[in-house]
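STRUCTURE REQUEST FORM
Protein name: Cation diffusion facilitator family transporter
Source organism: Zhouia amylolytica AD3
Requested output: structure tokens
Priority: standard
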Amino acid sequence: MTNPEDHHNCDQHHNHKNGLTLAFWLNLLFSIIELIGGILTNSTAIVADAFHDFMDAGAIGLAIVMEKIAGKKRSDKFSYGYKRFSLLSAISLSIFLLAGSITMLITAYNSFINPKEVYSFGMLWLALLGLAVNGFAFIKIKNGGHGHHHHGHHHGHSHNSQSIMLHLLEDVLGWAAVLIGSVIIYFTGWNWIDGILAIGIALFIGINAIKSLIKTLKVMLQSVPEHININKFKVELQRIEGVVDIHDLHVWTMDGDYNIGSVHAVINDSNPTTKQDILNKIIKLMENFNIQHPTVQMETTNSNCKLLTC
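Status: completed
Returned output:
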């Protein structure tokens, strides 16, 4: 007997997936149109915005691939599963975008030295198209990713679609800037406005790429996830009745969403029922601290760690 609720979730997930896939293709195709349009209109700002849109297509594509790969079961070779594979694509995307933004800055700088004619009328049309495409993708994802955050299980997806909606919103603002810029150029003939816009967009891309790179490298280097306060965590663990000492406490994250923790707990009672009780409390606390994969090793005070390399 299937639960109607499950069916509803399945539909939701399907819509959400379609929304993502559509937004991905829209952004990807559109960034190619922009690149050509930017070259034709001689506008550095539009070429920079093409990179910006490509960045978002990349982010969306990554989210789709992530959901695919992360869903793969663990294997003998990858006992933690495949969640970390998404970090590889995140790193390469960041490096690519960083290179892109540096190129944009150089191009914009050159456009100040050797001013060039910008076809503001073409810019205007591209900007309107940009607003339409991104607005449409935004609405698609907003409606598709609906109703996800009610189920703990779907946390990752809603988190994903929220960050993508933010990307698309940034795109809309980027295009609004290009639109205003093109109108000003049209009426005043100030071609340097194009360079200013390009610098703004390139800096925006560069800063975000660096942020993303740092975040990904922190996960790779197994740093404690930002939202987990390990000192507070240790204090709370030691507060549990029966726990004498806590050592070898480690918390890290697989991909930024799925957290792993391990701990050695020294307890003063070898009574099996008390032991089980303490263990349950420790695991409950670890779950409260947003650790999805807890590992606990218990030692009694009298065994005094003789057998263990503590």
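Reviewer notes: Residues 230-300 form a domain with the Alpha-Beta Plaits fold (CATH 3.30.70.1350). The chain has eight helices and three strands.
Form closed.
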